What we know:
The complex is a heterodimer. Chain A is of the alpha/beta class. Chain A has helices at residues 2-23, 29-38, 68-82, 99-108, 122-131, 163-166, 177-191, 207-223, 239-243, 246-259, 271-283, 295-298, 314-326, 360-373, and strands at 54-57, 90-91, 113-117, 136-140, 170-175, 196-203, 228-235, 265-269, 287-292, 306-312, 333-337, 344-346. In chain A, helix 3 packs parallel to helix 13. The longest helix of chain A is centred in the N-terminal third of the chain and has 22 residues, at 2-23. Mean pLDDT of chain A is 86; it is low at 23-46. Chain B contains 15 helices and no strands. Chain B is mainly alpha-helical. Chain B has a single domain, classed as ABC transporter involved in vitamin B12 uptake, BtuC, CATH 1.10.3470. In chain B, helix 3 (62-84) packs antiparallel against helix 4 (96-122). The longest helix of chain B has 41 residues, at 14-54. Chain B starts with a helix and ends in a 21-residue tail after the last helix.
Amino acid sequence: MRKQRWLGASAALVTLTLVLAACSSGASPSASAAGSSESAPASVPVTAHSDLKIGVVTDVGTANDKNFNEYTYVGTKQGAAAIGAAEPPVTVPKDSSEFASSIQAYVDDGYDIIVTAGFSLGVATTQAAHDNPDVWFIGVDQGPPCVNAEGLPDTTFACAGDAATLLPHFVALSYQEDQAGYLAGMAAASASKSGTIGAILGISLCGPCIRYTQGFKLGAESINPDIKLVVNWVTESDFVKAFNDPVSGKSYGDQFLQQNPDVDVLFQVAGKTGNGVLDAACEAGIYGIGVDVDQSLSYPNAAKCTITSAMKSLALAVSTDIGKIVDGSMKGGDDHWDASRDGIAYGPFHDLASAFPANMADLLDAAFAKMKAGTLVTCPEKCGDLSTLK
Amino acid sequence: MDGLIQLLYSVPVLGLLFQFVGYVIEIVPRIAPIILQNATPIALAALCGVMCERSGVVNIGIEGIMIAAAFVGWYVGVLVQPALGGDPSAFFGVTPALLVALGAALLAGMLISLLHAWLSITVRADQIISGTIINIAAFGLTGYLNTLISTTSPNGAGAFTRFRPPPEIADIPVVGWIAEMLLRQGPIAMSLIVIVIVFQVLLFRSRWGLRTRAVGEHPRAAETVGIDVIWVRYRNVVLAGALAALAGAYLSMEGTNSFQQGMTAGRGFIGLAAMIVGRWTPVGALGAALLFASARALGDSISFARPPGELGTLLGQLPGQFFDALPYLVTIIVLAGLIGRSIPPAADGQPYEREKAAA
């Protein structure tokens, strides 16, 4: 009898833990949707589009990460507010196995526009776009989309299908990383006293990481033709170690700086692993450069040595595209954001402007203007090819 | 001397081996402090495993205890930092807030371990299931709470800083690099060595150790000589929780000063492997963790700068994935070939039920 009671108690405990654990996948879209539509500000003018339902699925992590998740969400909120739709709910999947179900929950609830944040959700978003041709999907950092002849996600990267015609309601955002990297490279070469700078990539398989670094190299050379750039990547195969392991990033950065003692500016292109790289830079007393967003804000621990960041304008792209979907001018397929659309930028210097020559901002703005005009080459011929960096 | 080395290097096939040994001898002293840092969370996790399993309780929830402790330590630091304030002291960068945070992390680890002890000792639940629940729940809960809390990207209480030994120490011939490796560390990594030695001595040379091993090998016999099996198991499992918590605290309070969802990245499970490779002894576990960390650091080193000569040419032709897999390959090879049979404590994983008084 006694033993059975214990067993019952432990079974209850087990169930409770599992329920609690399941909670971490975030409130269900329907619940948060109900909550947020009630709290939608009354001042928003009611337009013909106010009944549009827009939802966000982020990458793993948090919705307020001052990074991809947050700025995707901010952009969606801005876009929704601009068209008078209710404030969009957000779902944060616990791990990659919940990507598809998180998207499907919005589809089942009759959402009209579903925004997914980050490259990792690309396959799940493409699949959902194929299965639900009436729903608009905006995939941040998922362009150009790669589909086979049936419009299904192509994990072999043959990309035989034309996504724009096969999936006309799937907008895959891509960014001209090499332009942002170019600006960061100019900043790095200007701040470097030793004439040797470094870049640490998360993984050799990451095209955007490579383009960032290729631009970084050209930008640095535009300031100092003799600059030496040391490039390494944390791993060739392990995505967790590449992007989600700051402790490994820290020790990798330590070792990198120990074996390359001349490096005095270090560019991280390794996501959260790269936050550890910035830590290593700070500890070694050199400068770090952040990636994707203003990392002085997204990673305040390293703000004391983060001189700037190579940025993508995530919020702008999402809010613009929501507007274009509503006015009917949006088309599916790759939606490319470069300097000409203000899709990239360099991060503010914050308290570290003294690291640069006084005319740094002018130089960067001039280069940005040339990019806008399309007269500045920011990527070598083999753009996205790692061999150019070896 | 140099001539002899060149001669050895030029021997066909075997010369490559000599070149590799030469490269290791050259590079390892330079990266030794980083190796010990990488090994610290793995070794502490392994020590947690050793203490649990030596007392007869399997604990695969180490990874979960680590992530929970990493989170609690970081978040308590966030909470108490404004109240306690204070600048980092010269002594390891210690602040009052950091100490409170470390205490909270240890407490959290011990509480979760207490749950595991209760489930596996009192309730006699399946210990694998109990550990699995701890892993799932810890990852889910820390992820969920982190989502709620990190809305403002708060700064933690900072991190323990490393001791910087005077440069003369590294210049001592032959052993200088070992001293450098042990001293150029933060407090958690430095205390690891002390913990390993004390644990090893206690486990094999003290009354506590004898009782622990008796309870893990033959609890019935232990009971007949008057050892309270249940109490010994409870105490050891909860103590072991503090070790795993220290591993977690290392991640969020010494290795970095931030919490990242899933930042344990499998180190708790690697620690379990290190426990087995180290044949359930503290020194062995440390050795296995160091071996694993060395393989990783060596792989990174080779990617930074290829060694000269034929060896470099050969390594340059290997795919990069090989170096990613190197630590795991080394673990498998050592486990399968070098250490002989690895025998767990006889009563490992078996719940103990007191014999009923004669009816």
